[in-house]
Amino acid sequence: MIPVYWYFVLASAMFSIGTYAVVSQRSAIKVLMGIELMLNAANINFAAFGAFGGGSSGIAFAFFSIALAAAEAAIGLAIFVNLFRLRESVDVTKASALRW
Amino acid sequence: MLPLLAQVEPVTGSVATGMAQWAWLIPIFTIAAFVVVGVSGKRLAPKVAGGVAVAGVGISMLLSLAIVLQVLRTPDSALPLVMERHWLEVGTLHFDVGFYIDHLTAIMLFVVGVLSFLIVVYSTAYMHGESGIRRYFAEIALFITGMLGLVLANDFLLLFIFWEIMGLCSYLLIGYWYEKPEAAAAAKKAFLVTRVGDVFFFAGLVIMATTFGTTNMRELFGWAAQYAAHAGPFLGQEGALTAICLLFFGGAMGKSGQFPLHVWLPDAMEGPTTVSALIHAATMVKAGVYLIARAYPLFAIPAVAATALTFVAGIGAFTAFFAATMALAAYDIKRILAYSTLSQLAYMFFGLGVGAVAATGSAGYTAGVFHLTSHAFTKALLFLGAGSVIHAVHTNDIRHMGGLRKYMPITSLAMLVGALSMAGFPGLSIFWSKDAVLSAAWLASGENKLFLVFFVLGLLTALMTAFYMFRLWFMAFWGEHRGAPHSVAHGEPEEHGAHHARPHESPPAMTGVLIVLSVFAAAWGIAMLAGGIGGFVFFGEPEHETIVQAIANPVSLMSIVVGLVGIGLAYAMYAARTIDPARVAGSGVGAGVHNLLTRRYYIDDAYNWVAGVAYVKLANAIDWFDRNVLDGVVNGIAWAQLRTSDSGRRMQTGNVQDYAAILLAGVLVVVMLAFYVLNPNSLLHQAISRAAPQALAGGS
After folding, report:
1. Does B635 lie in the same domain as B498?
2. Is B507 within the bounds of a domain?
3. Shortest CA distance from B650: residue in chain A
4. What confidence tens digit (pLDDT) does each residue in B57-74 have?
5. How confident is the model at residue B94 (pLDDT cuts 50, 70, 90)?
6. Is residue B285 a part of any domain in this protein?
7. Do B498 and B627 lie in a common domain?
8. What is the spatial distance between Cα B431 and Cα B440, in angstroms, rounded to a whole number?
9. φ/ψ bin of B448: left (φ > 0), alpha (ψ from -120 to 50), beta (otherwise)
10. How many CA atoms lie within 13 A of B444 on its CB side?
11. Residue A97 is nearest to which of B650, B654, B661, comparing CB atoms?
């Protein structure tokens, strides 16, 4: 059987890649994809803990998280559609009107 | 009255009964006239407004006369008649409101009541056709309220309140023609200059209240009587009493126009002539003299009198002389009378101040008050006569008059009586009272040589008074009518719009009042003397001087001589023209003196320089300091704050990714803290717990 820490390594790698995407990418779509990666890294952890002795609650949390991710993606995409209508671009670094 | 207010039992005197218990109604009627005329405004016809004022003042006069009669019937031991109602208490201080009626109050009530009434009656004719006539009658009723209340007040604080009401009314009435810049300026000047005196008066009141805990006359005068028997709270307080008296006199100097606060009174001529008559004869300027006479028990305490009363006498004697010189060169009929008022008021203070020499007894006090009353009637006559002249010729300048006795026989005769009285012609009112002042001063000079100087100043003043009064009379009424080239009214606006070809006599309401006042100006003095004024208004022991005693003494003879010399000199210069006044004023020394006098000794110029140049410069300097130094500090602090926060707000980029990165960094810090510091198994934790165990005391 694959040892549990392999899952952790995979999840950590996905989380880091996602974080990197969120912080560095200019395109809103890519930022959203980064967020999805981070969420799914957490889902892998949930599933791994569930399978390795956590019982059904791990799986349940993973499903919750997936549902939330879907909702979040829907809201995020809606925001981006509006942003694009307003600015003709989805570059997050340009959308910086809420400052001094 | 109000049953809730407790009656305070007087220590001396007696609680007012009979007519006197209604004394508080006297100012109520005049103030009612003020309220009715003032509130109704244009709904009241001008004639009705005048009628209301006449009625209000008339009822007050009748009440005053009734109270005077009661005082005459009351034995001296039962005086003063007092009524007091508890007013307010502040800490240990208490104030009562009420009235205090003694002989001084009675004689003032008579003079103020009668003169106010006559002047209001005269006003109905004189002010006829003026646009602001309702305002005039409302203000004049309030003015008279102020004086009547002041005379009746039982407490110096209450007196001060009425004093201030008069200050306000003098401002309003002097500035009656407020659209005229000179009148507006004169009103401001009167208000501000008297304010200087009022500050002194108020300071005196504060010292009085804090030292003795009361400003009630009955209590204070009772203590003054106890002091003579070496008892009471005044013992050891001579210094405070002297300060109080000098400060009170400071207030009187402002109100009564004594040097150096005399500058407002000549300018106050910008008001209607009736207002001048009221201010000069019955109210306002007499308030200052009344205050000193009222507070005389305090002034007369020997240790106080030496300083305070000598000062009063000195200022009085100097101002009498000083003001009379300025009258010599004036051409405005009202200004001459104004200088004359200054000079005569100073005479009253001089008389009161003679009391500094104990040997004179109450001679000075009686003379001062006597002079106040006889001057009141004479000056009212002169001012109303001048008003009648101005009414007829529409000018104030006596150079444009002349020969008026042909056109205005009643006015010219009335003015002759007034001028004769003012000049001290034997037998007329002022002759007696002025002689009383001079005799008292002569008596005092035997003991204190300073009073000899004052006496000489007084005698010279009498000479000048006779001269300038007859200069006025001869220039205005003698010779031929000169008329003004363009008849430019100097003080009074062209009230009727119509120019009369030749001067005419005034309406009966005016001449009638003049006739009544002529009788007073002629006979008041001898009537008072025959009636024994020395036994009526006195301080300490009554004096009983007969008419023969009054006239047959060296002082009286000197005074008669200087009076006649003055009249003769005026006749020679302005009627017979044997001496040419223009040559006197044109010669070297004469021109210099003439210029000095017409410029009023440059005192007004000096005050204007202080107020207009020096004060403005000081204000500008302070303004610069305020703008640059004080505002600079405040603005500098604000600017520093602005710069600091400006650099701080740059952190808020508005870029979501920056916030995410900062959040991530924060999370990493927390995680590292958990792993490497708080975790007991970490090497760093073990190293710290060995080196400094207390640093982790709360963490594990």
Report:
1. no
2. yes
3. A100
4. 999 999 999 988 888 888
5. confident
6. no
7. no
8. 14
9. beta
10. 33
11. B654
